[in-house]
Amino acid sequence: MFAKFFLTDKKFFVFYEGTTAAGIPLNDGKFGMLYGNHIYIVMRRRKMELYVGFDPGGEGQFGWAMCSAEGERLRILHAGNADHAQNALLAVKSRLPSQVTITGAGIDAPLFWVSNGRRNSDLLVRNAIKKLGSKSPGGTVQQLNSLRGACLVQGPLIAKLLMDEFPTIAITETHPKALLYLLGLANKQNPPNDIGIENLCNYVQADTGQYSEHERDSVLGAVASWASLKQQGEWRDLAKEEQGLLVPFDYKPAYWMPWDLVQ
Fold it and tell me: Whose CA is closest to 66, among 104, 111, 110?
């Protein structure tokens, strides 16, 4: 028995010549078709899952990252810094593989507001990370009225642009430094600023290279989006628990955070 391999635009075919189908495994995404002495084994290409993260900031400080799901971790494909939401989206789109969409996005900025400026979801996160060793929970997760315009405005803007471009995308708000506490990576002895990409090896694979803080936070946004959709551990959508949400644009906000370590 011998095999011939050929690739079409959508499928990878393995053509076996022989007299029987016995012993040909038809699992793990493959299926077989028997025609006389010929067995066609068809293995569908795995759908590529891409997740992006954004860390809105001022000029040259708008972090972005693109990651692909590979097994139990993400692989960092690209990361960089842009000037604003439109540039960040263009940076992602220019590196997007052909015929591939984006599954999810995590954005380090408030994606919904409340009229009194005090979101209960932020209070829950502050209380949680305080128990986990944060020395300044109010500085890590600030009130809406305390935020700079680059964060407050550019976050909803990139969410809107993403939704316009990728209508099926799942978007979540995230706060990377708080996320590090809730994942058990940051504590009193190891504050968030001391944690680099190399410390995220349980969640991401990274090629050699240096990453800025904005790029690291963007990678963590992608991790939050991916992990919340995969529901690895106990994750909680705090947006569903908020009363009187005000959403500035036409997207569905979420605020997923891991809650395993919260007592």
Answer: 104
Give every CB contact of residue 83 below 8 A, 6+ residues apart in sequence.
59, 60, 62
Q: What SS3 state is found at 6?
A: strand
- Segment holding 206, helix H or strand E: none
Task: Specify whether the CB–CB gap between 183 and 175 falls below 8 A.
Answer: no
50-73 pLDDT, tens digit per residue, is 999 999 988 899 999 999 999 899
- If one counts every other C-beta atom within 10 angstroms of the C-beta of residue 18, the result is 15
Report domain extents, the chain: 2-44, 50-258
**Widest CA span in the chain:** 75
Q: Which residues contact 135 (CB under 8 A, 6 or more apart)?
A: 188, 191
Tell me if the pTM is above 0.70: yes
Single-letter amino acid code for the residue at 5: F
Q: How far apart are CA 128 and CA 137, in angstroms?
A: 9
